[in-house]
Amino acid sequence: MKGIDVKRLWGRAANRCSFPQCKMELTAEGDTSTIGEMAHIISKKEDGPRGQGTFQGEDKDSYENRILLCPTHHTLIDRHPEEWTVDSILAIKNDHERWVEIQLDNNTIPFHSIDNSVFLEERISEITAFHEEKIWLMTFITPLNISSGVINTRDQGIIDIINSYELQNQPHLTSSINRQMTRPNSMGLVNDDLRLIDSDIGHVVQICRNGHCEIRNIVMPISAEHITDRIRTADFTERGDELVLSYSEIALKFVNQIQNLKKLWDDCLQFKDMLISALILNTNNTRLVFGISQFGEERGGNYIQSNKLDYSFIVDKKIDWKEISELVMMRMVENFGLVLDSLYTDDSNLCYPRFLRS
After folding, report:
1. What are the angstrom distances between the C-alpha of 10 and each of 5, 34, 37, 93, 145?
2. In this structure, are 61 and 125 located in the same domain?
3. Domain boundary residue among 87, 106, 125?
4. Are 205 and 215 a contacting pair, CB within 8 Å?
5. How do strand 273-281 and strand 136-143 relate by DSSP bridges?
6. Do the domain assignments include residue 241?
């Protein structure tokens, strides 16, 4: 591509992604989140995206056959050439360049934030307000850059993954998701079922157009004085509203959520890096129990006073879902004063926490 064409493309796009509602600021050199890509409108190869399209100019590397995009939207238009035709991409390019001219005339080109923290804070605040009283366990995957219209939530691949989701309602009990509950909503695509919420059974699977995906499940707590028959006959002080959580249920639900979100990421999302967030809401006066001692007493961690447990970290797409699950559970059990050395045994059975002194 000639130097003059490169300058024309970057200058007329104002160093921003041309995709509608994105406008992300781009750099010629940077990480995979901010680097700009000078995408071909008509592929140089006949078997490439829109490669059979007609082009008036002699050089397919010229300004006329290029559009400036972020990596995500470059991948999007090339992955779905039947949707993003030559005419539609040219219209996007022309509309963006007209937008740049207007903004320059008015001196109003805005800075587009690529930080996802504001979105996540608002999302968690909304969810916390909605999920009163019940204990909810949830996992999010969120792009490092938040832009609307990043993914097509009507993509059949995304719908198929949601509809194949196996719910972990209780320890050692799974059930297929109700496909009739999968539907569009204001954020993108959702499947939820809260009809048995009073019985501590319910879930929400939400896929957002900006690439944020989340799975939420209700956790079934047990009153501290009714853990097992052996505990009922033990002599201990009444604990009032204190509740115990089953380590097995927590671990299996986190594993289930992370496994399904990782499949969605691998098969349908183009982001190289994502923020993983694991949360448990309404945990005040709860204790994590993982077994019964030889003396008939429950083995578990401390009662905690925090109402929200959360852990977030950035991971590369190459990471395995088992490794993510292990990182999450290692951090979660620490909130209860416990230690987890490994999530699985060598023969793939679930490992249990231990006390630091043991």
Report:
1. 9, 14, 10, 12, 21
2. no
3. 106
4. yes
5. antiparallel
6. yes
78/166 same-domain check: no
In a domain, 100, yes or no: yes
Nearest alpha carbon to residue 167 among 190, 135, 134, 191 = 191
Please tell me the distance from the alpha carbon of residue 212 to that of residue 261, in angstroms, as a whole number: 10
* pLDDT band at residue 240 using 50, 70 and 90 as cut-offs: very low
Does residue 133 come out as left (phi exceeding 0), alpha (psi in the -120 to 50 range) or beta? left
Report the Cα–Cα distance between both ends of the chain, in Å, rounded.
65
Q: Which domain holds residue 317?
A: 117-334
pLDDT at position 238:
38
What's the length of the chain?
A: 358
Query: Do 226 and 86 lie in a common domain?
Result: no
For residue 30, pLDDT beyond 60? no
Residue from 190, 96, 74, 211 nearest 146 by CA: 211
234 in the same domain as 134: yes
Query: Average pLDDT over the chain, rounded to whole?
Result: 83
Q: Considering 40, 71, 106, which residue would you say is the last residue of a domain? A: 106
Phi-psi domain of 333 (left: phi exceeds 0; alpha: psi -120 through 50; beta: other): alpha
* Cα 337 from Cα 303, distance rounded (Å): 9
pLDDT tens for 80-102 read 888 999 999 999 999 999 998 88
Q: What is the largest CA-CA distance in the chain?
A: 89
Determine contact, residues 321/329, Cβ cutoff 8 Å.
no
> Looking at the 3D structure of the chain, how many domains does it have?
2
- Give 143-153 pLDDT, tens digit per residue: 877 776 678 88
Indicate the DSSP class of residue 349. Answer: P
**pTM, to two decimals:** 0.67
Instruction: Mark whether 151 and 281 lie in a shared domain.
Output: yes
Confidence band for 24, pLDDT divided at 50, 70 and 90? confident
Planar angle of CA 282, 221, 311, nearest 5 degrees? 45
